[in-house]
Structures are given as C-alpha cells and as structure tokens.
Amino acid sequence: MARPAATPPTATPPMLRRVNAGKLLGVLAKAGVMTGTGLIEATGLTRATVHAVCNDLISMGWVVELDPHRDDTSVGRPSRRFEYNAGAGCVLGIDIGAGKTTVLVADLRGETVAKVVRSVPGDPTAAERTGIVHETVVEALETAQVTDAHVLAAGAGVAAPVDRDGNILVDDEFWRRFDAGLSRRLTELHGWPVLLENDANLAALGEHWRGEGRNVDDLAVLLASERFGSGLMDSGRLLHGSRGGAGEMVYLKLVEGVGDTHGIARIARDQGAAAVADPAVDTALRALAADRPVTAELVFTAADAGDKVALGILQHVAARTARVVATLGILFNPELVVLGGAVAEAAKSLLPEIEEQLAGFTSTPPRVAVSSLGDAIVSVGAVRHALNYVEQNALDLTLSCRPG
C-alpha cells in the first residue's frame, strides 16, 4: 500500500520573511551598493517586501542604508540605496600545515585585514599543535585590532581527509597528526565556530573564488609541493566522498612512473641532493648549495642558469607531474587543473613540458595553470569557507556592532 505524500510545511509569514531576508542578504553580500529597484530586479520581490526586509536587516546590523542619490534626470523621490555591512564582523582563514600555521583575518567581503604566519617546530604533539594555532590566532586578532566578539566563524584547513561533518579520517599515520580536537578546543577558547576542512578542498574554494579558477565550475586544484593532494569541484560543488577521501592521492603509489605521493618540491630537492652528493656529477648545484642543504628553489635556479643536471631533474619532475594531472583528467574530467602550494610560482617553467606530455596520456587533457594565490591558497579558501557559513546562517548570528 502506497504511503500518502507528506504534506509540505505551511509557509507562514515569519518563514517567508526569513526566506526573503536570506535572498536579499545573499545578493547584497556579492554586490556593491544596490538601490531598492536593483534589489527588486535581482530577487523578483515586491518593492514593499524589499524595503520591509531591508529595514529588518538594517536593524540587525547586516545592511547599512546610504544617502539617497539623485541625478539631474531623476523624477520624484530618489531611490533608497543599500550596502552589505562588511564591517559588521570578521572571519578567520586558518591553514594548519605540517611546517607552519597561517591565519588570515578578513572582513565580511573577504578582504584581508591581517595575516600572521608561525613556523611549527619539529613534530609537535596534538596538544602542542593546537597551542601553536591558538597563539597564532591571538596574534592575528591583535594585529587586526579586533576581539573574539567580532569573529563570526573560522575556516580551518588540515592536510587530511575531512568528511562533510568536519571529522578527520585517521586511517593513515600522517593524517592522525591533525586529529587534535582542534575545532572543539578553539571554540572553547574563543567562542566562535571552527569549520574544519581538507586543505586541498579549501584550495579549490580559494581558486574558484579569487584565483585562476574563477568562472570554472569543473575544477581540480593540485597541491604539489611536499605531497600531492587534490581538491575537486564538479559543477561548482566540492566533492567529498563518503568519508572525505575524494581527491586523496594515495592511489599514485599504483601509477606507473609516479609511485608515491611525493610532490614537486620534494622530488626536485631529493634528486638535487643526490646529484650534489655524487662527486662524479658535474653540476652548478654544488656551488649554489655550498654548505647549505639543497632545496627545490636551488634546483629551479640552476636550471634557469642552464645547468644540465638541474634541467634533467626538472624534465623528470614535469613528466611525473603530467602523469598525475592526466589521472585527474581521466578520472574527473575537469576543465582546468591548477597547480598550487609554495612551489606554484616556480612551476610555471614546467607548464610547456607538462602540457606536451599530457596529450600522450589522455584524449581529454585539461587546461593547466599555476595558482596566483601563492602560499595563501589554503587560507584564502578557508576565509571563503567561513564566509559561506556566515551567509547561510546570518539570521541566526548576533553581531557585536548591532545597532542599539
């Protein structure tokens, strides 16, 4: 026997008012100054509804009304003008990396107010890592001259799979290092919600918002420095998988010509160090390094100067990276793959070789670009993650600067 269809909830006036407020706030958050007429056209709401809801949002602190503007051709009463109150609060973008922690403080349009970076010494315990993040947050808030009361949410990225509920997948020893109860502890210390997410996923959000991936909804961002990790967007939506593992690159251990998850910086550094250690190898890297450890940056520098050994290393790195990009192209068919992380700027020199190799690996090669966001790619995405939360939950949040 078929069950009767569920009766949809009755649309009460308070419910409609809330829906309309969310719609208007979403438009204003993404736009500049808008008139009442512009909001009517953007939302399809009536003039009376737009003005009534804007009055509510003004009283809550989310919207400010500007002086009316009249030009020489206008007739009658000038239009009311409204603007999203970007100074009504702030959000944090936190990148919790293995070697350093970065905290951005941003206003509600995502403009950076302060940035603080702290190194992470050695291999800290979970409690020590949480302490470092807390200290970095405190310094960032002081630099921005704001208090915890102004913070509406924080996005935080970790180098581990995170499911849709913010839980870290701990099936790997490296991932377990980040399972520190961080979000709960920071909320206890500061009072604002902490939204945990995978760092590569946040990198994809950041690129889609303010990087090379703007207006690209089928996107893969490949964090490529020490370890490969990818964030994936399909039709503008982040892919998580059942336990947060979508985009994890452990499968590279099974890919011929790749063999592990080591990224561009690590491979270049390791092969450069091996060349310097071999007295039979004639390379400019030896003089560049002198008594210092060989770094990926030194390999790129030597290659720019025409050193044959360094050029050979980067040719190998490019061919290996092309195989990694090809697997993403075959499995997920993105329009664009963006190489991100600290190595991104140097990796521009690898693009011609990567693109040439790609054509031999897949019949649907994606475009490849390098990120313009530099080492802020994850923290910028974390800001966007926090802003998404604020915009979706604005009517349930209390602003410290609320009028009255």
From TrEMBL:
<dbReference type="InterPro" id="IPR043129">
    <property type="entry name" value="ATPase_NBD"/>
</dbReference>
<dbReference type="InterPro" id="IPR036390">
    <property type="entry name" value="WH_DNA-bd_sf"/>
</dbReference>
<protein>
    <submittedName>
        <fullName>ROK family transcriptional regulator</fullName>
    </submittedName>
</protein>
<comment type="similarity">
    <text>Belongs to the ROK (NagC/XylR) family.</text>
</comment>
<dbReference type="Pfam" id="PF00480">
    <property type="entry name" value="ROK"/>
</dbReference>
<dbReference type="InterPro" id="IPR000600">
    <property type="entry name" value="ROK"/>
</dbReference>
<dbReference type="InterPro" id="IPR036388">
    <property type="entry name" value="WH-like_DNA-bd_sf"/>
</dbReference>
